[in-house]
Amino acid sequence: MTGPVPFKAACIQLRSSGDVAQNIRDTTELVREAAGAGARFIATPENTNIMADNNRAKLASTFDEANDPSIPAFSGLAKDLKVWLLIGSLHIKVSDDKTANRSFLFAPDGTVRARYDKIHLFDSTVAAGETYRESSQVEGGRDVVLADTEFGPVGVTVCYDLRFPQLYRRLAHKGAFAFTIPSSFTVPTGEAHWHVLMRARAIENGAFVIAPAQGGLHTNGRKTYGHSLIVGPWGEVLAEAGTEPCVIVAEIDPQLSVAARAKVPSLQHDRDFTGP
Question: What is the pLDDT of residue 175?
Fold first, then answer.
């Protein structure tokens, strides 16, 4: 078989705070560690640049895209290390009272090759006293994004998108051999659903899943589940973190996606149907 050759991918697990500058420094250190381990595609979690105490604090510490300090920092880092760098999401100010929850994919030359604004926003009460209303603070996206890389097409998504399998089906039909799912999962939902859903998205589409996560107790009092994952297209867990900030690395062979789809060609068997 011919096609893209195997490469190493890494997930960066973070515990972001309300201090944007410190979050950039912490992320940079771990990205450099991942590159030192041979990773050529490195992904960070949702909320890489900030996990603020409240929306007012977040808005006071974020910027529009033209002025955001994270973007030149991570562009320069990708160029310096000559890696593909997926910043799982930055909060980018888009109005006086809302941000976009936006992924950026930087190429090895430092250019932005893809942007994706999280489509599905997390409005939920997951436990007594633990309620989230992301839509009150974040402007949701509308565009599905398939990023071209030297390894093949990658579907770019964020966290709560995971629960909407039709998004991943669309990306798989368009050729994605891998999905990025940077996340800040809650502990209750993570314990119940994280591994099952990540493996399901991989299995049903014959695709790799690269899912960097936030983990542990943040300075704003929020607890996130951690357990960053890299999953193979047959559903096997290739690498997994615990709850501490760290780097995990796994080898990705795009041809294994081709092989999985040949064994179970469900993408070819999708059919339109009617009713109810």
Answer: 98
- Give the number of domains in the chain: 1
Residue 247 bridge partners (DSSP): 12
Q: Which contiguous run of DSSP H or E holds residue 211? A: strand 208-211
Active site residue 118: yes
**Beta strand 41-43 with 7-13: parallel, antiparallel or unpaired?**
parallel
How many helices and strands in the chain, by DSSP H and E? 6, 16
pLDDT above 80: residue 2: no
223 carries an active-site annotation:
no
Q: Which whole-number Å values give the CA distances from 36 to 107, 117, 223, in the listed order?
A: 17, 30, 29
Q: In Å, what is the CA distance from 171 to each residue of 73, 144, 221? A: 29, 8, 35
Residue 229 in tokens: 């994952």
Q: Which of 11, 93, 118, 139 is catalytic?
A: 118
From the list 93, 98, 139, 159, the catalytic residue is 159
Q: Which of 46, 58, 93, 98 is catalytic?
A: 46
Q: Which of 165, 167, 163 is CA-nearest to residue 155?
A: 167
Question: Active site includes 159?
Answer: yes
Is residue 276 a part of any domain in this protein?
Answer: no
Domain-embedded: residue 38: yes
- Predicted pLDDT at 1: 44
> Residue 256 sits in a domain of what CATH number?
3.60.110.10
Residue 269 falls inside a structural domain: no
Domain of residue 122: give its range.
Answer: 7-264
Q: What value does the mean pLDDT take over residues 136-163?
A: 97
The whole-angstrom separation of Cα 196 and Cα 192 is: 8
Which two structure tokens, joined as six digits, stand for 32?
A: 């450099």
Contact indicator for 43, 31 with CB cutoff of 8 Å: no
